[in-house]
From TrEMBL:
Designated name of the protein: Prephenate dehydratase
Catalyzed reactions per annotation: prephenate + H(+) = 3-phenylpyruvate + CO2 + H2O
Span of domain ACT: 196-273
Keyword Transit peptide carried by entry: no
Superkingdom classification of source: Bacteria
Organism: Crystallibacter crystallopoietes
GO cellular component, one term: cytoplasm
Keyword Phosphoprotein: no
PROSITE patterns the record matches: ACT (PS51671), PREPHENATE_DEHYDR_1 (PS00857), PREPHENATE_DEHYDR_3 (PS51171)
Site annotation Essential for prephenate dehydratase activity: residues: 172
Enzymatic class: lyase
UniProt domain Prephenate dehydratase: residue ranges: 4-179
Lineage: Bacteria, Bacillati, Actinomycetota, Actinomycetes, Micrococcales
Gene Ontology terms: biological process: L-phenylalanine biosynthetic process
Gene3D superfamilies (UniProt xref): 3.30.70.260, Periplasmic binding protein-like II
Length: 282
């Protein structure tokens, strides 16, 4: 197994940038889909996978909430990436020549002000960096891309506008996945920790309220709670949760005992160090 970290997207994407920040000396392996990135790790072709889980503006990344509970991979780390977009065109292009802007649907939605100001026609692409590659291939001054700054150098494009995003606080949270391994003990993970898990509540009145009550009464900070459907049922039957703490902490032991009483299934997805970004936003 090589020191490789897999990600979904094309070279120059935000996921690629996250890989270079977390594992700068490792090979970053682009994959066409999240499933392919997961498979790189389960097959042993890569040691880790870098997966975006939610964005401060766009919310959760589609499908990830359903994929994580169904994989054998385990969260071992988190990373917060400040999202930046540049408006990119072919060399020699001026910004007034641009007519169409190509990018991922989320990037287009996060750069509405510039798009409106320049009167550009937004065109949805499958990937931010992929749109930069396509603009480079088309060699049409009327077509520009919204992509991370790294893509300009990779695809030989000029930066027509920096910091094109509407919100300077735009941030994506990524999780780093590895093949299943023992959960690190509290002694091994001495600092602030995050525990991610999923659970299914019993079919009794106020089950969710009672299941989560243990975290409130034990003073545990819950930073994520999301519901989603499983098995084609039109009901919020599964919940994905992030809490600040380690399962061996006394407060967490009591909270999980109460949670277990009102649930039919609990699965821990990972216990890992809390990223310093959390302290900045606390």
């Amino acid at each position: 197994m090589t020191d490789a970290i897999a990600y979904q997207g094309e070279p120059g994407s935000n996921s690629h940038i996250a890989c270079t920040e977390v594992r700068p000396d490792w090979e970053a392996v682009p994959c066409a889909s999240f499933e392919d990135a997961f498979a790189q790790v389960t097959s042993g072709q890569a040691k880790l996978a870098m997966i975006p889980i939610d964005n401060s503006i766009a919310g959760r990344v589609a499908d990830i909430h359903a994929m994580l509970p169904n994989t054998t991979l385990q969260i071992i780390e988190e990373h917060f990436l400040r999202i930046r977009f540049s408006l990119l065109g072919i060399p020699g292009t001026s910004i007034d020549q641009a007519k169409e802007v190509h990018s991922h649907i989320h990037a287009l939605g996060q750069c509405r002000k510039l798009i409106r100001e320049l009167g550009l026609k937004p065109v949805i692409a499958g990937d931010t960096a992929g749109s930069a590659r396509e603009v480079s291939e088309w060699q049409d001054p009327a077509k520009v891309s919204l992509a991370p700054p790294m893509a300009a150098e990779l695809y030989g494009l000029d930066v027509l506008a920096h910091d094109a995003e509407d919100d300077p606080t735009n941030t994506t949270r990524f999780v780093v996945l590895a093949d299943k391994q023992p959960i690190p003990s509290r002694e091994e993970l001495a600092g602030p920790a995050v525990t991610s898990f999923v659970f299914r509540v019993r079919n009794v009145p106020s089950a969710l309220y009672k299941a989560l009550g243990g975290f409130a009464t034990n003073g545990i900070n819950m930073t994520r709670l999301e519901s989603y459907m499983v098995g084609g049922e039109f009901a919020a039957t599964m919940f994905m949760v992030d809490v600040e703490g380690h399962p061996e902490d006394t407060a967490m032991i009591h909270a999980f005992e109460e949670l277990d009483f009102f649930t039919t299934e609990i699965r821990i997805l990972g216990v890992y160090p809390a990223h310093p970004f959390r302290r900045k936003t606390a």
